[in-house]
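Box 4.2: Ligand-aware structure prediction
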Amino acid sequence: MHEKRNDSASSGTVPLEGAEVPTKLEWLHALIERSRDLMAVTDPEGRILFINRAGRSLLGLDAEVEIGDLWLSDFFEADGRSLFSQIIKPTLSQNGLWESDSYMVKPRQGEAIPAALNVALLACEDFRSPCDIIWTIRDHRIRRELSRQIEQRVREHRVVAELARQAQSIRWLDLLRNAVGAVANTLDVELVVVAQPIEGSDKLHLVARHDLVALNMNVINGGAKSQAGYAMVSGQPVITLDIDLETRFDTSGARRCGMTSGMAVPILENGQPHGALSLHSLTRRKFTEDDVIFLEAVASVLSSAQKRIAVERELRHMSLHDPLTGLANRALALDRIQHGLTTLKSKNDNDLMAVLLLDLDNFKSVNDSLGHDNGDRVLVDLVPRLHSAVHDGDTVSRLGGDEFLIACDHIRSPFQAIDLANRLRQSWNEPFLVDERSVFLSGSIGITIARSGSQATELVREADTAMYRAKNTGLGGMEMYEPTMGEASWDRFRVATDLHTAIEQNQLWLAYQPIFELSTGKIASIEALCRWDHPVEGPIAPNVFIKLAEDTGQIGYLGFWVLETACREARIWQKINPEIKLRVNVSALQIKDEAFVGDVKGILQRTGFPARMLGLEVTEGVILKSGDIAGSTITQLRELGVEILIDDYGTGYSSLSYLVRFSEMSALKIDSDFIRLAVEKRYEAIICSIVNLGHTLGMEVVAEGVETQEQLECVRNSGCDYAQGNLLGRPVKVQEIRQQLQI
Ligand code: C2E
Ligand code: MG
Ligand code: MG
């Protein structure tokens, strides 16, 4: 075998096609025939004896052309024959070799081609004796094409590396935009898009596009109705040479844009196609395997960036959301509130922000009786109900356990916050079904309205304070935050409070504040307001100690003392002006006490104060919350001739529609906070509508807390009947009231 090969190789002949040849000759034959360079053998004069396939093609010689009479030098652009005879041949006879790197070879048809020539004598023992010549001519265009291809690959690698670097840091959409731009530049095409499926539709959304053809569309057809869709559903790269001849998918969209060729690859997500990177060119282009590899590399950068973004988003979501309900957690809620506060400030319009804290009542017993899993299910079921109560843009968040926070930054008045709370309360109108058992829930809501300079954490604390207060007034309650709630350190007093002793030691006393009739400017009634001068703590605000009295079960005793003292002291001014009425505040718990009517009767009898001159002020919530007992107490008091007034209207449960229920009330006192806010924000119209409604229902309307001339003008213009406030007369001791009346 070895011998044979040596023999054949040294025979000096070139194998002919079809001949039975040893293996080594087959190799040589293949090498020569498959070479991209021209390879030829000529006789000593340059007449062609053999030329390979690449040579025929370079010189434009068809297979049929006989080469017997052809001189290779005739194919040189300049005077080839004299080059051969004067330069090549003498050099060959000296060195056996002649080379030139820049010569022009002219094929039979067409332009001259830059080429490199390598010429050698076939047998080299004796250069002088004539012998055959072997020629190798390399078409420089091939080299150029090769180096162009290499440069292109390098460019593509750079693009992919740069996109991969960007994928670590920049925003997803920016990455997509850069990717389509880079693909368009690198492959020199007119249209590149990233298409992603639109959920619930068979269309694709063009999430990024680079178009030099003014595509003007963001949505294209999916599936077999577009190149991108086809790449996506097939999960394979697609190359289209001529879209007019394409049959695998609909090309009408691309045709409308004047496109000719195209290519697309799927973008994979966890191995599944979840989009496509698709491009088109206006001119006919033969996209190659290498182009596909480049496009796939870009698609894979995009898909790994997408994965990273999804993981990051997931982590971020987890750090800002409650895992059970998916709601925003405390951190995100605080952030949104703070953001809302900043926006409100910069908008400078009349919008307010309300923060509501909702705590479920006795939720522990749900967990204890049904198990924590079922407790969790109730919490999850509550979420859509809460969402249906709020408006778009409101934030519903879970602070933990059974506490939810609702922030709303586009309300126009505190009424709307209260309406929102009422809607939230409807969330538990229907029972929750757990294991075919009905679970009844209720919640207590604290509300606060942002003031200028409010901070998110402070608002949450205020709503929390109000919520605790709501809890204390009974289940399912709601309270609006009042600044005084947070001021006193509650617990300090809670234990030590002994109002019995306070009363015995004369630490309590009543202040009296006049209420003026606006039409005459005269005092029409006087409200008794309880005061506590604590020997150690100093004066304690009634909002604080009344609450304490309610919490510690002493309100009955305190209320009794207040009513009796007020009726007795009022007798003093009765003598001066018998038409001036007395107003006394009563707590919800007093109204709920069945003995209350008897107590009032007894006090009236003992003090001799006429029932028709007494008015009891109750906060509106009392009437709504307390049900039958309160209803019948109020009816019996009315029968005695005692008037009932709704106090602090506008801060509690009120909504205009609720007023209709208060038919037995003789007057409505609009809360001072509400008056202040209404005047500040120019909501006179709201005051007018409350006054009108009150009048329609046969009630007189009193404005509380009038502090400025502007407020006085406003309440007067709104048609209020009475006004009370520091501008007109502060709460004073009984002797002072008496002096004022005598003037
Ligand atoms: P209220 O019944 O709405 O009383 C009016 C409150 O507004 C009083 O606060 C009064 O001092 C205050 N006020 C009057 N004019 C102005 C003004 O121009 N500007 C401002 N900012 N405030 C003004 P006070 O005395 O601190 O009482 C607070 C609340 O405590 C009362 O609100 C009432 O709900 C309750 N309260 C007071 N005394 C009693 C009582 O004897 N029994 C019960 N159950 N509650 C009482
Ligand atoms: Mg009052
Ligand atoms: Mg009031």
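In the box above, the bound molecule is magnesium ion. Residues 525 and 580 are 5 Å apart (CA to CA).
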